């Protein structure tokens, strides 16, 4: 049992204090790879969701290529362009300068990664994480991720380099994006070539491909499902198949010009050292995805929290009780770790000895086998004691012990909001005469006094950026002696999930997990 090794000390350096809605979401996207929906699309590394593996295409390569094209519009001098998901606009995808790439790779990438975006995760952040995970899960290096990119409302000015341009144009183009000549060589080696299976266009390399077969692909090295330095070793050895080096038309042999522009010094150093190739790649790639328009403020590097509560939820249930449920993730545990984990909680009475043992759900491996995360659940089945907390006492903060070692964020604890929550009296009515309806009841603790309570629904604005629709609820008559007052809305029945929003003292707060009214009972049975 106790082969436990909690190797958490290495990863705590930049950790933030939980909770932070945006950082929690970004951290989960970056590190909870078994559940973020992204990693499944790049395992195995040559998996291609839009066609057969035989096409030589892969989601991973498309994602890497897409972030380069999104970034390459950056103009360091005037601060415009950069990683802002402007590549999602058809106008950018259709530009002549993008024609050497497999253009549908951009729309494919946006189609699969955009759904990950929400009010805390911009589309550009989703694209950045997709490319990081593509590299990381294809045996490439781990790349630092910062969040907070802002999605553009319109296409950027053109700026992607073209293969038929001369060396001076390429040096100038990368300088405009903020990269030196040596960095250009590295970026081209990684982004334009080491994306394992790569673009071709009938215009660019007809000598290598049948122009009528738009799915055929010229690989840039022989290990096209694996991220390594072969792009450099094969180039130096003179055995490269890179069509931008050995193409018959010298005009479009841009990689040959770029790689040779320092007498092959950079490429030789990569060929001689896989480690240098990997570390330089990680640094340059991080700089590339952090190339954002002026004024955009990125977060600190998102490192995994050693102990992280997740999906916490409270529901006001019958007889003035609260159901509390959630999960906790222990980061970087041994694969066979099964420590005794206890959840402790403080309540409004100041009591600090409440505690319950929580149950291990799974140990998952992420980041291409680098880390294990252990998940523990607490819900009305696994931990019945949490299904009927006294609503008056409530719950204000939680802590954990892991084999008796206290995990409380250095004494801060993990704050829990027990002021506003869905009530279990929410219900739906099936009515073939007047139309099916759902009623959401939201419980608001007496004394909180919000000016508004509303349902929040995820939506997209006219240019596809994540946004939130607010649907106001109506308060029931107030009983000052009740622990909670109720706000309600009855509306046409739908599967839509909502979180709760409220305005308290002029500030907006969000509570609860996305919840469908089907999570509750039929009204006739509840009342
Ligand atoms: C070589 O490529 C350039 C740029 O695409 C093109 O203008 C030129 O006609 C090509 N030359 C040959 C011989 O195909
Ligand atoms: C770089 O190396 C390649 C492959 O060995 C060779 O063909 C080319 O001439 C070299 N370029 C320079 C500038 O040394
Ligand atoms: C609420 O309390 C009443 C009276 O003690 C009991 O009959 C009922 O089963 C309780 N309801 C629930 C959902 O526990
Ligand atoms: C856990 O709860 C028990 C009573 O159920 C109590 O005796 C014990 O002190 C609690 N442990 C902690 C660490 O608070
Ligand atoms: C609230 O409680 C007080 C004291 O028990 C009582 O006098 C009062 O009538 C109650 N008010 C309501 C609205 O029930």
Automatic annotation (TrEMBL):
UniProt xrefs under InterPro entries: Ccp1-like, Haem_peroxidase, Haem_peroxidase_sf
Residue intervals of the Plant heme peroxidase family profile domain: 60-329
Pfam families given in the database record: peroxidase
Gene3D superfamilies: 1.10.520.10, Peroxidase, domain 2
Keyword Cytoplasm set for record: no
Class of enzymatic activity (EC top level): oxidoreductase
Record key words, sorted: Heme, Iron, Metal-binding, Oxidoreductase, Peroxidase, Signal
UniProt keyword annotation of Cell inner membrane present: no
GO biological process annotation, one example: hydrogen peroxide catabolic process
Domain of life: Eukaryota
Known EC number: 1.11.1.-
Signal peptide extent: 1-15
Gene Ontology MF terms in the entry: heme binding; metal ion binding; peroxidase activity
Family to which this protein belongs: Belongs to the peroxidase family.
Protein name according to UniProt: Peroxidase
Organism encoding this protein: Mycena venus
Lineage: Eukaryota, Fungi, Dikarya, Basidiomycota, Agaricomycotina
């Amino acid at each position: 049992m106790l082969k436990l090794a909690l190797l958490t000390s290495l990863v705590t350096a930049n950790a933030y204090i939980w909770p932070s809605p945006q950082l929690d979401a970004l951290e989960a996207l970056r590190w909870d790879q078994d559940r973020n929906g992204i990693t499944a699309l790049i395992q195995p590394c040559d998996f291609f969701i839009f066609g057969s593996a035989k096409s030589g295409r892969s989601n991973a390569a498309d994602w890497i290529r897409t972030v380069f094209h999104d970034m390459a519009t950056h103009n360091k001098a005037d601060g415009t362009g950069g990683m802002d998901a402007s590549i999602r606009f058809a106008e950018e995808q259709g530009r002549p300068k993008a024609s050497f790439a497999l253009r549908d790779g951009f729309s494919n990438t946006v189609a699969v990664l955009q759904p990950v975006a929400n009010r805390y995760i911009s589309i550009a952040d989703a694209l950045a994480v997709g490319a990081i995970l593509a590299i990381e899960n294809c045996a490439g290096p781990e790349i630092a991720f910062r969040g907070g990119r802002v999605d553009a409302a319109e296409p950027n000015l053109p700026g992607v380099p073209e293969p038929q341009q001369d060396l001076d144009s390429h040096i100038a183009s990368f300088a405009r994006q903020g990269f030196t000549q040596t960095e250009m060589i590295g970026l081209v080696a990684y982004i334009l070539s080491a994306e394992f299976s790569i673009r071709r266009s009938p215009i660019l390399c007809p000598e290598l491909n049948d122009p009528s077969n738009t799915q055929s692909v010229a690989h840039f090295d022989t290990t096209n499902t694996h991220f390594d330095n072969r792009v450099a070793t094969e180039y130096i050895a003179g055995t490269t198949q890179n069509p931008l080096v050995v193409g018959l038309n010298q005009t479009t042999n841009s990689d040959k010009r770029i790689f040779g522009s320092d007498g092959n010094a950079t490429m030789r150093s990569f060929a001689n050292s896989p480690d240098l190739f990997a570390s330089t790649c990680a640094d340059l790639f991080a700089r590339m995805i952090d190339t954002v328009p002026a004024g955009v403020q990125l977060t600190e590097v998102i490192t995994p929290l050693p102990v992280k509560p997740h999906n916490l939820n409270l529901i006001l249930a019958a007889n003035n009780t609260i159901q509390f449920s959630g999960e906790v993730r222990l980061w970087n545990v041994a694969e066979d770790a099964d420590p005794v984990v206890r959840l402790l909680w403080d309540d409004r009475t100041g009591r600090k000895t409440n505690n319950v043992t929580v149950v291990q759900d799974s140990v998952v491996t992420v980041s291409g086998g680098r880390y294990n995360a252990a998940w523990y659940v607490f819900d009305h089945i696994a931990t019945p004691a949490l299904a009927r907390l006294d609503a008056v006492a409530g719950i204000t903060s939680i802590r954990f012990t892991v084999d008796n070692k206290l995990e409380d964020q250095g004494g801060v604890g993990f704050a829990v909001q027990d002021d506003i929550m869905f009530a279990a009296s929410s219900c739906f009515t099936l009515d073939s005469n007047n139309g099916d309806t759902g009623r959401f009841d939201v419980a608001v603790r007496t004394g909180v006094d919000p000016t508004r309570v509303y349902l929040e629904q995820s939506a997209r604005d006219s240019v596809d950026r994540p946004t939130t629709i607010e649907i106001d609820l109506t308060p029931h008559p107030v009983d000052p002696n009740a622990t909670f007052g109720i706000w309600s809305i009855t509306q046409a029945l739908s599967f839509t999930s909502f979180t709760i929003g409220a305005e308290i003292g002029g500030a907006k707060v969000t509570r609860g997990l996305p919840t469908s009214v089907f999570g509750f009972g039929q009204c006739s049975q509840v009342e």
